[in-house]
Amino acid sequence: MVDELFFTNNTAKNLLPIDGYTVFYPHFLGKSLSDKLFLQLKESIEWRSEEIKIFGRWVMQPRLTAWYGNAGKTYRYSGIEMKPLPWTPYLLEIKNKVEKQCDVSFNSVLLNYYRTGADSMGWHSDDEPELGKNPVIASVSFGAERLFCLRHKKEKSLQVKLKLTAGSLLIMTGETQHHWQHAIPKTTKPIGERINLTFRKII
Question: Which of these, 33, 30, 14, lies nearest to 22 by C-alpha position?
Fold first, then answer.
């Protein structure tokens, strides 16, 4: 029903040509609220610098992260085990707005803080077992605009690129995580700080 909701009750169109559903709302939050929340998140979140395992090697993640959510909703990826910190009032404010748009209840959120253009997110899918078969991933962006890339796992020529603006909402659902990878590439261009929240439901 979630997939149908996106296409019958909203004007946003599916960004993916095949094998999944991804929709984008560039003005989900207004500028004043987005700017306010960016500062609050930057100052109040308990940011961490994590070491992850990639191709058998331990390396530092090129960004800061944090994990908040309901008690017991532990998240594991790339050799990391993240136990949730309790929800803050600002996170709950954003969560409630996202849930109304998605018609989905989330119990956790992964936060990423990109300090400069050198901070990035490599190609990956959000397909960990604890997210379930067809997870709904709702991503809200604050701060500087960054390029977001999607590519099909088998048909490598199929790629989608868009700029994630401050206050925007990107929703990935259906079979997207089975067939597509996504990334935030590095850039040498002078660029400001960015904070991203990806709401999830740990089962």
Answer: 14
